[in-house]
User: Fold these one by one.
Assistant:
Number 1:
Amino acid sequence: MGTLLKGGIVVELEPACVERVDLRIEGERIVARGPDLRAAPDDEVIALSGKLVFPGLVSSHQRLHASLGRGMPRPKLEGYQELLEKVRWRYEDALDLDAVQVAATAGGLEALQCGTTTLFDLHSSPKAVQGSLLRVGRALHEVGVRGVLAYAVTDRRGAVGREEGLEETVAFTRKARGRLRGQVGSAPLFTVGREALEGLAEAVRSTSSGLHVSLAEDPLDEKLSTERFGAAPVTRLVDSGLLSPQTLLAHVGHLSWPELAQLLPTGAWLAHTPRSNMEAEVGYAPALKFGHRATLGADSVSADMFAEAQAAWLRSRDAGQPIDVLRYLANGQRLASQAFGVQVGMMREGALADLLLMDYQPATPLTAENLGWHVVFGLGSRHVESVMVDGVWRVWARRPLSVNPSVVAEQSREAAAAVWARMGEK
């Protein structure tokens, strides 16, 4: 039995394509595309009447564990270091495994409802390391979102914490299947010593995966890395052999041009996170200089990639360095294709059926030539009506099918209150 989507306007991002055409889906794949496809006897036929069929979006850098921190009390802060020490790290230290799973469920559901079908999550819960990625994976599996998960290895809690983090990220990477994959993860390099960096390099080699790391979110990363370990973060990554086409670098906001020139030839992916950067007041990342493998991530804010794309384009325009927002979105799908070993994002035969039905009635003509303007100034998560992941409807008529949003919200509020209380005890 297949699903036939008839009469929709199918959108692809790069090269941009806007075409009224039918799609047939069987199993997890798109199996046919054409102007007037005939239904097989047992097909489910869905008449779209001009609705958009949009590829599922990708957040290339997500911190799902932060989902329970939205709106929590925080002290007045003086700079990035206090943000880490008084807020982020205290919050992460207050997470237990139950909170980890609830946060991932809430964040994954929010992503799905916004049309984001794949998340590259960099997790951290230093007092609940063992089994944490399994809990995140269980949550995303229940929601129906695709996930690539890593644990952020750090020396912040000593050698025992470092080894726990390495074991967690490697073990999950080796056993992840289906809609889940693993990566080797790292915290900012000023919290990662020589032995930890060696461990990360060995983990990357042994798992044949890539490194996911936050890099140069703030100048403090380079300052403290140089003071503590004698070299800037980029130099340390190069010397450790950790830069490759499988590497995923998030933020990348405070690098000199010579450092960027070292990164770009390695083929590493660079995830631009404009909303998170603005919230943390860490300055503008020069995304136009990020090369042909630049993509978008939401970091610790909601995984609404329409909102992220709009913020990215507008902020780049304001800086006088406008980016090609469709390429950034399409690169997220290319990154997901690399991680899962199958085409994601192209609405063509053989590609995974990760797609959105969008009830968008444009006030002006919608064409391949002006698609970017509609993404920036018209389209939004409010237009997402139904979501399919792996050929299965996960949201239909704006109603999630795998979880109850009211129950998820209630559990999330309870877990958030408990985490905030534990933070107050420190």
Number 2:
Amino acid sequence: MSIRPVAAGLLFTLIPWTVAADHKTFSLYTFDSPPYQQANPIPGGPEATGETVETIRCAMEHAGAQVNIRLMPQNRARFALQRQLVDGYFAVDPSPDLDEAAEISHPVALEKWYWFYLGQRPDPTTAKIGVVGGSNEEVWLIQNGFQPFVTVSSTEQLPALLKRQRIDLALMDQQVMETLREDSPALDQTLNREFLRYAPLHLYLNRRFVSEHPGVLTRFNRQLPECMEQHMLLSADEYQHVAGQARGLIKDLEQRLNLAQAIHQGPVYDSFTEILTQDTLWQALAPEQPTPLASEILGLPASQALKRWQDEQGGLVTELLLTDNKGALVAMSQLSSDYWQGDEPKFQEIAVETERGMERKSDLWISPIRYDASTRQFQIIVSVPIPLKEPNNGLEGILAMGLAIEKTLHNYERLARARSEQVPMELPVAE
């Protein structure tokens, strides 16, 4: 006799049937993966904590919902979501199987996945790969034609298998490995690493939930950027790399286009009321269609030059915006979501109004990593001032440039890997 019906029936009794009920507190499952998700023992039972848990709670609260988050093995959580036994499950890579049963949110976390190994990196196509069973890494490997040699129940087992040469490669998130290192400082096994990919992870909500609670997912997605921001800051080394790469790109662009001249050739509204009026109309129509003003700006020679230069960067540059000293757009490489940029950090961190007029506040601003829903990728925004020749600190406007984080930091990781090959990184191996 098959035990599957019995196991399924037992699971039904263990999982609260919250989906059909009219409730304000929603039931979400995730899995143990410090520092993103972990159990915090408290009186009355363990409480889920961690970076991604904080993001989920924050965005759901701002969306008008309370959540009860429980930790569960990944395979069991997937089973529960696919059978609509739970309202949602996070943090997971996009999955065709889950897409059939649930609605996916915008990303709630961005992980950095590495190969970890001894000595020289083996060829992943022939190597014996170890991974946590049911994990996002295992799902991704199988979807991309890799068959794991060993699956384990917890991440701390993987360094031990590498040490014993039972596997050649372990696929893990960087922060998860760093957490193992912090918890086991006495472990002295040397491992090397090589960056593989940035992995955006999502919340899945079952379709019955989405149908019975219209608008929650939309509001949740809208709140995510603010709730994720503290977890999406660049490290000091990454910031320096991005700053250097951005300055090189901007220098190249300035050799192709006179940015100050382009500002003066754009449309001008002297009245701030007129700017806000145009911005309201612009936002009402974008991104589906441009307003007459947007069409005019897109047709300008400067906008066409920005678009050509962006296309030459091979996907590294995602957007270029040029504004006057009021924050109003005068040129753009593609249709922006709004006309007036003066209320956004990319302008406010560069420009400041003084008694003498608009002046430079700083020479460079780099945003945290943000998810761009229109392009479905993570990006950062870099903005710089376009200075007036006289007075010395005067401001013509600003240039804002979007950079695809995957491509930008891939360059950084290649440099970091070259350095690490000279001085191997000390990482933990559990006994």
